[in-house]
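In response to reviewer comment 3 from the previous cycle, which asked for concrete evidence that the modeling workflow produces usable outputs, we include below a single protein chain processed end to end. The sequence was submitted unchanged, and the resulting structure tokens are shown without manual editing.
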Amino acid sequence: MSTADIDERNALLFSSLCQFIWIQGEPLPLIYELEHEIYVSQGIHQSSLIRLQMAGLLLFEPAGFVKRKFGKHTRLFYFGRPTKIQFYQEMGNALDIGHIVLTSKGKALAPLCNITPNQDFYRYVIERWSREGLITSSILPRR
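The workflow returned the following structure tokens.
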């Protein structure tokens, strides 16, 4: 599968969406506030997400999705950069992952998108998690 399998407008939208993907076992596009400038400035808003859903690349849910069954700690990666999250409880924690999840088609296409990290988005997510009471820390690779 390649981005040639979808029309040009959807391919551009999907590539833009991919800058918002974190990895935690699978790609997780973290789209939290649909009208936030961090997303809108990149062409990602409710109507573009619905368009990508109709193309079979993602599932959009206005109420949002939650990933469950986390222990006290977990790691998510943003462009290979590990970030550790510490929850309050020892077991049974949940993480709000925003309004979309990728379909199998979207998961197959995501690694093919040629994109660069969005540092403003990285800071936005870390600040959001901190406001939710999560403790985050970057993990530096060993040398």
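Residues 3-138 form one domain. We consider this sufficient to address the reviewer's concern, and the full set will be provided in the supplementary archive.
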